[in-house]
Amino acid sequence: MWISKRKKEGVEANGETGGDWEKGGGYMTLEASLLMPMTAVLIGFLMILSFYLYATAFLNQAAYISALRGSLERSGKDRGTVASEELERILGERILPVRDLKKEVTSTGTYVKVVLEAEIVLPFPGIFPLGNRVWQIRAEKRAGIRDAAAFIRGMRMLSPP
User: Fold this and answer.
1) pLDDT value at position 26?
2) Kind of pairing between the strands at 111-121 and 99-107
3) Is 107 helix (H, G, I), strand (E, B) or coil?
């Protein structure tokens, strides 16, 4: 309390006289009491948003990689089974902040399709003005089945000798 006692006597903390101690009163406390909670809420929102964006990007990547690797299968195994195994391998390597992960792998004669659906639950639903407490993620990727050798042979048959 040495500074406040010296201020009341008319002497600044650096030894100079003058200055009005009561001039800026409690504005700093008032600004800090409003600014700090808003900053904490903003940082929390950015963290939740980054978890959502990471999970969305990762699930889209996992769906596409598994569909692509399933579409490239040529050893005679079922392409859907290969895509499912690849999807399980990719998802087993990561920890995701999602719940209720649903997987669907479809294989036809022309494409392999992988659909992933999940949810992210917001931790503090009353703080953020985001409406719903659960955010949905849906990743749907499709890879066409290509047989490069057959395509090249077909193109050679079309081209003149």
Assistant:
1) 60
2) antiparallel
3) strand
